[in-house]
Write a structure and sequence with these properties.
heterodimer, A: 634 residues, mainly alpha, two-stranded antiparallel sheet, 26 helices, 2 strands, globular, B: 531 residues, 21 helices, 74% helix
């Protein structure tokens, strides 16, 4: 089978599944689940076949023209190279396990047809982003992924929470897409093409055409999709959707699409743009880590954690690319930014999906209890879940060598150390905070004794839920080692990731060890196992208040929408009614009416008046004919 | 291998159509005539026959809408299969004796520019007709007669090469709108009907003056589009003529500030009338500008461009904000349709093959989507008893299929890829950056945020949340679903395969605007963008 066909099948299988679900299986849950899971399995099998047998690792591109209007030509095509292969692997692998998890998790849901249809549409859209060979096509699937997210966040449609959250996600993403599309159009008119390979060639020969503005506008899309500040506000609210969705879309894949896009288009970023990108990432990472401390809902903690880790990835791209520009000795130096960010994206996909699925297992077992202070003692009731969740916590904290997260964070901290000292200190501090708040989550929810009846009655989840946890746990621990990946994927992971050498190597290990272990130990000390209340809230209220405020972004945006935007809309509508409809239209009607009324006054019905007017007119006419008015009328 | 079979199948169908179509030019021209005549004859038959059963009325009505719809699809298939071809096809003309002296004949035909509008008229006509037939209104017979007259007029508008008949068919289709608003509208219908009648007649008068003036000053021998294309209008008059046409057509298309008739008219009108008017008839103005004003009056277009820019932005941004403030579903949709005309005018403003071609694609898609939205909004109103957002809510659980269709329609109209509207809007945005004023791109893109805000707010208010208010009847019925699916599937098909419509449009636009389009010369670093 040729590569083009294989890729087409990979892309279209979930779309076909979604179509069949819509036509045949809207009410038949078992059929819907089979179709969706089948599509996910097809994608995974074909992808693995590609990596182990069918693909030799060299870049492959195929494309067809899809629309032509004048000088604008839009193509649809696939570009399979190191970067897209890695992303394909992540989406296919993590996606499959989450599909399996959903079968168990959603077993009592009444709208499974809609859910699994949406899940398949999401896979189609995400694979479109991964395989797209040009900016317009990527933008199309970018929007489609936003639609899938809207549909799935709004799954529980009888709740107001879901209604608001789905709307917010779509609109905030659209704000990002506003800048993104401007950037794409400017790129198109500057270079005459939007194809990634062609753009790279043109940039190679005419680097002066690349402007900082172009890169920053394209980065707007990343701000929206990867929830960087200030467009981060939609992600915590998106937790209103079912947990598998939070795992797949809002942790592992969709939000990572922004980082993937940075990798695809890295040559369009100037040095100034990279500085801004890096700092946006750093600020997001630090702020989100601070905000995680005041959260009680297990999913919200993980959501802020995701925001923080996404900040790491974006910062890794910026700092890594800057490092590569200035230390361009190795021929892969250009790719250090991509390497650092993609490596962390990969490990994060594993451990964050694991953490979310683990939280789903807990929520399912505790009958939809999500407050960690009402859990506790789960280690006795749900040993496998606890074990795998612990693996996830170790991974995200970055404990040296036994955590995939250690290797990837290591790379990012290393390029930070070499490129920008302030960024390095902030990111290291954030690593400590990460271990701290994740430790807080683990110790309160899993250890100690149960704090509520639902936690009392918890029991281990069925195999469809536990098996994905086990698989992801293995990858969360071992994902830093190259042997876990097919050979064809090791280019990105092996050679593009900047590794510290010699003395730096030891320094980084020590720093990571200190940050992670101290963070976890401190969490145990401060919060205690199985606590029912938040100690920091009681003992340090101001600190807690700062964390809970989340710097008032949601409040500011809410204020803007209600008091500024809606009021402006009402004022404009009022003026439209008053002036245009009222004064101009009704006014002109009134004028016509007035003329009519005036004209009617002439019809008095009295003959003598008519005779009078007749003679007056006659006199005037005679005067005109006699040249009386010649001076006035020319 | 798997991709080859469908291609072979399509190729086979294409060959059949090509041979059938091109071996029967007379038949096709006759079909063009029939598409106009059949609805009018059916309307006449319904009017003059005596007592007829409800069933007979419905069957006749269905026939009256089905025939032009199928003809439009057939002719489209024939035209598209003859690609590359952008000129006039299926021409037929009939002398009418008396009018010959003025150069007027009944001259019908389709070119690449008219084709999308023609298909749209057929599809929306079928949908509106079927929806009307099952809607259970009083005096169904008169209702259908008026709609059939509208349909005949619409088919005539877009297949007319002769300009007087182009205008005549438009009036033919317009008058029933007024009557339908007055008789079957929502509350306030009498006042709205009077306002709309006077306002639109005023616009039509200005248009007629502009068209006649164009004819006289162009020195063409016949009052039809082909003859007038070959004539050139002298420079000093171009500005005035273009202005007359812009204002006249503008009133009919609800260009800002001549837009206030539209939201109330569509909200008050019965759904099928709103579908045909907002969906199809409103495009008459833009179609006229593209077929006549722009090719013949390039200097005039350039003179008026600065004003047009601000008026189009007014449509987009000012009416966009007005739309966001609406609390009634149908009024919101009416305002939204006015807002989208801003995009089309911006595409014309960009004055390049990309801009004008994309404007045509956008209008095609918009016709289908706005008709679909008015249909579904009417279903919502029937179920919930009201159109007010404050009183509606939580319909999603009680009517899931309706929710799915409505959400899809709304997402289509706000430009989600996968539906036809996306291609048109994208093309317009791309074209705007290459116009004389690239900054207009930044302002017009705000439109995508505005439309997401009002669109999703509407969906959330009506369908999400807890069930609120009354709910009569069940989910959307198959009879209501059928016309909705017809429109939605068309939007989806063109959304996936835009080339079907965009190729003939592209051919035609390249042909019509070769001489008239200004060459945009960029800086030395950028590639030249000449069309």
């Amino acid at each position: 089978m040729d590569l083009g066909t294989v890729l087409s099948v990979i892309l279209l299988a979930p779309l076909v599944a979604a179509g069949l679900i819509w036509i045949l299986a809207r009410q038949r849950a078992a059929l819907a689940m089979t179709l969706s899971l089948g599509a996910a399995a097809t994608i995974l099998c074909l992808s693995l076949w590609l990596f182990f047998a069918g693909w030799d690792g060299s870049a492959f591109e195929i494309s067809t023209e899809w629309l032509t209007l004048g000088s604008l030509t839009l193509d649809v095509g696939f570009l399979l190279n190191d970067l897209s292969a890695l992303m394909l692997f992540i989406v296919a692998f993590v996606g499959f396990w989450i599909h399996l998890f959903s079968v168990g998790y959603m077993n009592d849901d009444k709208a499974r047809g809609r859910f699994f249809g949406g899940l398949s549409i999401f896979m189609f859209s995400m694979l479109g982003i991964v395989l797209a060979n040009n900016l317009f096509m990527m933008f199309i699937f970018w929007e489609l992924v936003g639609f899938s997210s809207y549909m799935l966040i709004g799954h529980y449609l009888d709740t107001d929470e879901a209604a608001q959250a789905s709307k917010k996600a779509f609109i905030v993403n659209r704000v990002g897409d506003f800048g993104f599309l401007i950037g794409i159009i400017i790129t198109y008119w500057t270079f005459g093409t939007v194809n990634f390979n062609e753009l790279r060639e043109v940039v190679g020969t005419q680097p002066q055409l690349v402007t900082t503005l172009m890169g920053l506008l394209l980065f707007c899309g990343v701000l929206g999709k990867s929830a960087q500040m200030p467009l981060h506000v939609w992600l915590p609210d998106a937790m209103a959707g079912p947990t598998p969705i939070s795992a797949l879309i809002h942790a592992a894949t969709m939000v990572a699409a922004g980082v993937y896009f940075l990798g695809r288009s890295f040559f369009l970023f100037t040095e100034e743009a990279l500085h801004i990108v890096a700092w946006v990432g750093v600020v997001t990472a630090v702020s989100a880590a601070l905000w995680a401390f005041a959260q009680r809902d297990i999913k919200k903690i993980l959501a802020y954690s995701t925001l923080s880790q996404l900040g790491y990835m974006v910062a890794g791209f910026g700092l890594g690319s800057l490092y590569g520009l200035h230390h361009g000795d190795a021929h892969n130096a250009l790719y250090y930014g991509i390497g650092a960010s993609m490596f962390h994206l990969t490990t994060h996909a594993f451990f964050k999906a694991l953490l979310f699925l683990g939280s789903g297992s807990v929520i399912h077992a505790c009958h939809h209890e999500q407050d960690i202070f009402k859990m506790g003692g789960l280690w006795k009731k749900m040993p496998l879940t606890t074990l795998t969740f612990a693996a996830g916590v170790i991974a995200i904290a970055g404990v040296p060598f036994i955590a995939a997260g250690f290797f990837s964070k290591d790379a990012i901290l290393y390029v930070a150390m070499k490129s920008s000292q302030p960024a390095f200190y902030l990111l290291t501090g954030t690593a400590l905070l990460t271990a701290l708040y994740m430790g807080r989550l683990f110790f309160i929810a899993f250890l100690g004794k149960p704090n509520s009846a639902s936690a009392e009655h918890a029991h281990e989840s069925p195999w469809t839920i536990v098996l994905p946890l086990l698989v992801l746990a293995v990858f969360s621990i071992g994902g830093g080692y190259m042997i876990m990946y097919p050979v064809t994927l090791q280019e990105v992971m092996g050679h593009w990731v900047p590794h510290p050498h010699g003395k730096d190597h030891t320094t980084m290990i020590i720093i990571s060890a200190v940050a992670s272990i101290i963070g976890l130990v401190l969490a145990r000390i401060i919060y205690g196992a199985g606590a029912a209340t938040d100690k920091v809230e009681k003992t340090l209220p101001p600190v807690f208040a700062i964390s809970r405020s989340r710097f008032y972004f949601d409040e500011i945006y809410g204020y803007y929408v209600k008091k500024v935007q809606d009021r402006l809309a009402d004022v404009v509508a009022f003026l439209d009614t008053l002036f245009i409809s009222g004064v101009l239209v009704r006014g002109s009607a009134a004028v016509a009416g007035l003329l009519g009324v005036t004209a009617r006054r002439l019809h008095t019905g009295s003959v003598s008046t008519y005779v009078w007017w007749f003679f007056a007119g006659l006199v005037l006419f005679g005067a005109y004919a006699g040249g009386f008015f010649d001076g006035i009328i020319q | 291998m798997t991709t080859q079979l469908p291609i072979a199948l399509l190729g086979g169908i294409g060959e059949f159509l090509t041979s059938a179509g091109h071996n029967q030019p007379v038949l096709n021209a006759l079909l063009l005539m029939l598409a106009i005549v059949v609805p009018l004859v059916v309307a006449l038959a319904l009017a003059i026959s005596g007592a007829l059963s409800e069933r007979a009325v419905k069957v006749c009505g269905a026939l009256g809408f089905l025939v032009p719809g199928l003809i439009s699809l057939w002719l489209a298939a024939v035209y598209i299969s003859a690609f590359p071809f952008g000129g006039y096809a299926f021409e037929m003309s009939a002398d009418l004796g008396l009018l010959e002296r003025f150069g007027i004949q009944l001259h019908l035909g389709l070119n690449g520019l008219a084709l999308p509008f023609y298909i749209m008229a057929g599809l929306v006509g079928m949908a509106a007709g079927f929806y009307a037939i099952q809607s259970g209104v009083e005096r169904l017979r008169l209702y259908l007669i008026l709609l059939l007259v509208m349909q005949g007029g619409l088919m005539g508008v877009f297949s007319s090469i002769d300009v007087l008949f182009f205008y005549f068919f438009h009036e033919f289709a317009l008058i029933p709108t007024f009557i339908m608003i007055a008789l079957w509208g929502r509350k306030g219908r009498k006042a709205v009907a009077i306002e709309v009648t006077i306002y639109l007649t005023f616009g039509a008068m200005i248009t007629l003056a502009g068209l006649i003036a164009l004819y006289l000053f162009s020195g063409a021998e016949q009052f039809n589009m082909i003859a007038m294309r070959e004539a050139i209008v002298e420079a000093p008059y171009q500005g005035t003529l273009f202005g007359l046409l812009l204002i006249g057509f503008g009133v009919l298309v609800s260009l800002f500030p001549f837009h206030t008739w539209a939201p109330r008219a569509y909200a008050t009108a019965p759904a099928p009338a709103a579908m045909l008017h907002a969906g199809v008839l409103k495009k008459f103005g833009l179609y006229g500008l593209i077929q006549l004003a722009y090719p013949l009056l390039p200097q005039g277009a350039a003179d008026w461009a600065p004003l047009l820019l601000w008026l189009a932005l007014g449509n987009l941004l000012i009416i966009g904000f007005v739309t966001m403030s609406q609390r009634d579903l149908k009024l919101m949709l009416g305002n939204a349709s006015v807002m989208h005309m801003g995009y089309a005018f911006l595409g014309l403003y960009a004055y390049s093959t990309v801009g004008i071609g994309a404007a045509i694609m956008m209008l095609f898609a918009h016709g289908l989507s706005v008709a679909l939205l008015f249909l579904l909004a009417d279903v919502v109103e029937k179920r919930g008893g009201t159109s007010d957002f404050k009183e509606l809510g939580g319909m999603g659980l009680r009517a899931p299929v309706l929710m799915g269709l409505f959400t899809a329609a709304m997402l289509a109209s706000i430009g989600l890829p996968g539906f036809a509207n996306f291609w048109g809007e994208l093309g317009i945005f791309v074209a705007l950056f290459a116009s004389d004023t690239p900054w207009v791109l930044y302002l017009s893109l705000i439109g995508i945020i505005i439309s997401a805000v009002y669109g999703l707010r509407a969906v959330a208010s009506v369908f999400f949340g807890e069930a609120k208010g009354e709910f009569k009847g069940g989910d959307i019925t198959p009879a209501e679903k059928a016309p909705a699916l017809l429109l939605l599937i068309s939007l989806f098909v063109i959304g996936l395969w835009p080339k079907v419509v965009s190729d003939p449009v592209n051919e035609s636009v390249n042909r019509s605007f070769k001489d008239a389009v200004p060459t945009v010369t960029a800086s030395t670093d950028e590639p030249t963008l000449s069309e």
